[in-house]
């Protein structure tokens, strides 16, 4: 007769739900280690086969590939937060993680059974990942067309919410500090925020190409680009500025303050990502919040499903965002 969860629960002295969550490595379950081990030992004694399959994840090793170097990661808390939460969540689910920085392929162990890749990657880099393992999940990079699981923020609705907020405040002259970047093998990465920004403004009849300036996602770039916008546009400086990420927003804010431009009365500003950087500057920055924890947990879930069912079709998850208003909007 097959062993059931009820049999294990009765023997271990816990509920069926607790048994199920422990055997499925549920990281949200609050239970002491003694109880957890008692359930695992009971399942082992009963030779519970489903338990053995779920526990196979404990022997799996995955590489967590960050496209940034350690130094770059310190300047962009968005990617750091995603990496750290992926590693924490994966380890809680019984996976062994190997951190790889700056997309260094040579550092990826050949015995990994999966790769979670964070950031932007060229086609040739994706192919190199595939030569190591077909089990790949991309975070913040749309790889569905290439045949791999991926998670991306909802850039389209995020940008729409920013423009709608400015318009609701009576601001119709809206600019952007966009970002340009390249993969570690020097392929240019398009900024989807800029694409959706320009598209939405065109539909509203509010598009002014002279109000768009490009930087490289660093705080120094944000400072320099904002100073250029102020100098070039003078009194024509837009009354609303959307900034592609938080480091650029912090630099831009410094330039605006040096120019003694009133915030938000003369200039309203909204950033993207909502890391700690923009929460604790003064004035605190309104920002589109991206759920980095949710992205990380979903990436680990995707990897475990991929390891269990490697022949499944690839999936794309779009993670929702929401605008948090602080002191840089009216």
Automatic annotation (TrEMBL):
Cited InterPro entries: HTH_LacI (IPR000843), LacI/GalR-like_sensor (IPR046335), Lambda_DNA-bd_dom_sf (IPR010982), Peripla_BP_I (IPR028082)
Short name of one Pfam family: LacI
Gene3D superfamilies found in the cross-reference section: 3.40.50.2300, lambda repressor-like DNA-binding domains
Keywords: DNA-binding, Transcription, Transcription regulation
Domain HTH lacI-type: 3-59
Superkingdom of the source species: Bacteria
GO MF assignments: DNA binding
PROSITE patterns per UniProt: HTH_LACI_1, HTH_LACI_2
Annotated protein name in UniProt: LacI family DNA-binding transcriptional regulator
Organism: Limosilactobacillus pontis
């Amino acid at each position: 007769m097959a062993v059931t969860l009820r049999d294990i629960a009765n023997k271990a002295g816990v509920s069926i739900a607790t048994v199920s969550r422990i055997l499925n490595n549920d990281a949200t379950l609050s239970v002491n280690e003694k109880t957890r081990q008692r359930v695992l030992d009971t399942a082992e004694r009963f030779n519970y086969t489903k338990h053995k399959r779920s526990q196979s994840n404990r022997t799996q090793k995955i590489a967590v590939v960050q496209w940034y170097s350690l130094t770059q990661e310190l300047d962009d808390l968005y990617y750091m937060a995603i990496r750290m939460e992926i590693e924490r969540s994966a380890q809680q689910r019984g996976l062994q993680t190997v951190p790889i920085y700056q997309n260094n392929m040579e550092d990826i162990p050949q015995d990994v059974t999966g790769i979670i890749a964070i950031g932007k990657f060229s086609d040739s880099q994706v192919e190199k990942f595939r030569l190591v393992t077909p089990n790949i999940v991309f975070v913040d990079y749309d790889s569905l067309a290439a045949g791999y699981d991926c998670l991306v923020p909802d850039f389209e609705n995020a940008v729409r919410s920013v423009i709608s907020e400015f318009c609701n405040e009576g601001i119709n002259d809206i600019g952007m500090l966009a970002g340009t970047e390249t993969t570690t093998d020097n392929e240019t990465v398009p900024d989807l925020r800029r694409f959706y920004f320009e598209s939405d403004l065109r539909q509203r009849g509010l598009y002014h190409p002279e109000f768009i300036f490009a930087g490289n996602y660093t705080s120094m770039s944000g400072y320099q680009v904002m100073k250029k916008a102020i100098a070039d546009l003078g009194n024509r400086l837009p009354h609303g500025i959307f900034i592609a990420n938080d480091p650029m927003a912090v630099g831009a804010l410094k330039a605006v303050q040096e120019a003694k431009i009133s915030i938000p009365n003369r200039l309203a500003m909204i950033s993207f990502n909502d890391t700690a950087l923009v929460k604790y500057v003064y004035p605190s920055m309104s920002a589109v919040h991206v759920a980095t924890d949710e992205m990380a947990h979903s990436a680990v879930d995707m990897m475990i499903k991929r390891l269990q069912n490697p022949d499944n079709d690839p999936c794309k998850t779009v993670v929702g965002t929401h605008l948090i208003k602080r002191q840089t909007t009216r």
